[in-house]
Design goal:
It contains 17 helices and 17 strands. With about 450 residues, the chain is an alpha/beta fold. It has two domains: about 300 residues, Mur-like, catalytic domain (UDP-N-acetylmuramoyl-L-alanine:D-glutamate ligase), CATH 3.40.1190.10; about 140 residues, Protein-Tyrosine Phosphatase, Chain A (Alpha-Beta Complex), CATH 3.90.190.20. It has a nine-stranded mixed β-sheet, sandwiched between helices. A six-stranded mixed β-sheet has the order 12-13-17-14-15-16, with helices on both faces. The longest helix has 20 residues. It is globular. The two termini are about 35 Å apart. Bound molecules: zinc ion. Zinc ion binds next to loops.
Length: about 450
Amino acid sequence: MSKANPLQSAVSIASCKLTRSILRRTGRGGTSIPGEIAMKLCPGITETVSDGMEIVVVTGTNGKTTTCNMIRHALISSGRECLLNNSGANLLRGITADLIDNATWTGRSKAHYAVLECDEGALKQVVPLVHPKAVVVTNLFSDQVDRYGSVQNTLKEIRTGIETDPKTILVLNADEPLSASLALGVPNRVIWYGLEESVGVQGNVDLSDAGVCPKCGAEYEYDYHIYAHLGGFRCTSCGYCRVTPQVRVTSIDRIAASGSTVHMITGKKEHEVQIALPAVYNVYNAAAAIGAAGALRIPVQEAIDSLSTVQSAFGRMETFDLDGLRLQMILVKNTAGCNQAFSYLTGLDEDYTAVLCLNNQTGDGHDISWINDTDYEKLCRDPHLKKLFVCGECADELSGRLTKAGAGDDMQQIVRDYNELLPLLKAEGRPVFALPNYTSMMEFRKVLSQATGKHEFWE
Ligand SMILES: [Zn+2]
């Protein structure tokens, strides 16, 4: 499998490890430079350092990080060593650097397992080099449109990645018609996961991303909806429809800020499952993680048990303690994710303060037009919402959108500096939900980390 010559790979590994340690010591973690250098010095290095490992690659629009975190937690809880690329670098260079970090100086992997979060567009470069045991696709939504053109292009990019490895097991969301269509025309084994009609939840229905039947081009009909374009879809023209999944969530018995209780059927066995993270979208992430655990042959009960102690990933429902005040941070970067976060907030039975932050930098995909399609009206109607703080470079645009949604001047306040925000939140004295997009999360999180003593991710 490994094509690199030993001297070349040794030089490449050494350069990567040294550059990384220098960058970290000077406070610049999370860059792609070490991986870039390593691949220049030895183009086969990614294959060399991943040789013999069992790897799960996770891609899709929403939920990648949390799903990775759940799979890793299942592996570690059952005593297996596992690498996770948690530095936020999910392109080939960053993944290569993380794999090198996990290798000895001679290129042998230390942890046997790796869970790699992978950008949708980078999948076609990553899969042929790391030969994953499984590829998990969480879902597809319109996101960062200026980078990929459209969600259909993203789907094509993922398909190209999958087609490079017919042996990799696909773990697919049965309820999401776009990513479900990836199973068509490829020989790969598929493990399906999904929520049954019997769970009886329905969030915002938005079929703009549903696409059309890949077999005949007709529009889908739905027997039931879960949220957005997820649910029991079928084509009335040719009969193509949602597959009955192997990992089936049959009921959601409890959803609270501390987590959810659901019933899940895997194979013929029914399990009560405690998921330590709240909200319906995390039920999907949990079901995806169980599917991935199955692909890795981890006993299903071990994987299920681990979900009761899983902790939130960086910025995904991460909890901070602000002098006794609870602040939960939920990364939102598109309409679907944001609507889901609102469903979660408005479903809780407690008064809260909300912080909405919006930037439009490269890491955010530049385009903020998604706020126009997002259901801020739902948030503003919630009687438990007592105060809104609006932050980030695009605070004015966001504030305008909130005014349209019904948030008056007494309800919302623009704050330009995160350092000034913290005392305001404390003065309000209620639990806080912060909903930033990517780069605003990095900025807000830095201020929060300094105030609460949490570390940056590379420390
Ligand atoms: Zn059809």
